[in-house]
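To assess whether ligand presence alters the predicted conformation, the chain was also submitted together with iron/sulfur cluster. Input:
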Amino acid sequence: MEGEALTEVNLDTSWMVQGRCRDLPPEIFFPSDGVGVEVARRYCAECPVKAPCLEYALENHIEHGVWGGASERERRRIARSRKSIPVRSAGAPVPNGAAEPRPAAPTPSKLPVRH
Ligand code: SF4
């Protein structure tokens, strides 16, 4: 649509089957206070897919819940810091702040269900 920006979407959910939260009540990861956030983060701290979980939440702009051990506030802070430092895919800074072309997004079938 005219005037509407296309958003890249990460639909790779293969890591979810390894998540520690897979067999836990989802409410744990959608806490309503700081104590709840700490409980969720403890589970995430020992999770083998912490990194892809966090990336998934960041790339898909998921606002709610604890993902990859990061609260909503922490993910907003990470996202802001990433916007201020242009990077290449290997993590090296882009000279002169030039934007790197983005790879094509996979064809979406449906949004994955929270694990
Ligand atoms: S890091 Fe992600 S997959 Fe692992 S327990 Fe936490 S929310 Fe679940």
